[in-house]
Amino acid sequence: MVHRPADSRLLTNLLQQEKDYSKQLTQLLEASNASLSSFTAYASASPPPASNVILSVAGSLAAADEALRRYAVGVDEWRETMRILKDMEDDVGNIMRDREILVTRLIKASKSSQKSNSGSNFRDSLLLGNGHGHGNRFPSSSSLSLSIAQHESRPLSSSFSSSTKLAAAQSELQACEAHLAAKERELEVKRAVAVRDGLGARARAMIDCG
Fold it and tell me: How far is CA 180 from each of CA 85, 98, 109, 163, rounded to the nearest angstrom?
């Protein structure tokens, strides 16, 4: 699976703009409510039939404000959905950074294992190849011990340790890859649902505004 680097800057910008938009809607509703209260008070001091007309218009304005309030709620719900989406994108980004660390660790473990294998090959060559051309199949025990002592700077267990580290690094990276793939699938589903349901509810609230 191809992993795309997570970049939430555009989503962060959208959330900031939607926050400002929601704030403006709230201020508009507060101003509209104050204006409507003054309008209604004026109607109560007016003689009929003017007062009846003013109160009827005030009722229509109140209904429009209520529709706008529902739209503002839809905007806030959309913002919350996108905030959750951003948190998921951040999680994927963190996992991808962990993956890069594990890849680097695996490369180092692989190189270390190669060095250990080179040491093992050297010992094998001493056992099987030394003495070739001298009439002896095997070197003397004294010369073999001296050659190994001169060429080995690490204990014999280093090869096993390097192999263990390599296997552990491979296992960690595989687990991270599986976790990353699952989170990316979850993110794609959440993004589709957010666009479909969040914008759908917001559009329906806008229609109610007339």
Answer: 16, 10, 22, 26
Model confidence, pTM: 0.68
| Angular region, 133: left φ>0, alpha ψ -120 to 50, beta rest | left
The Cα–Cα gap between 126 and 147 comes to 8
Summarize pLDDT for 123-138 with one digit per residue, the tens.
455 445 544 444 444 4
Q: What are phi and psi of 145, to 5 degrees?
A: -65, -40
* Other Cβ atoms closer than 10 A to 96: 17
CA angle, 198 as apex, 181 and 9 as ends, to 5°?
Answer: 55
Specify burial of residue 190 (Cβ count, 10 A radius: 0-12, 13-18, 19+): middle
- The tally of CA atoms less than 13 A away on the side-chain side of residue 168 is 10
CA 122 to chain centre: 47
**Of 64, 72, 67, 71, the residue nearest 39 (C-alpha):** 64
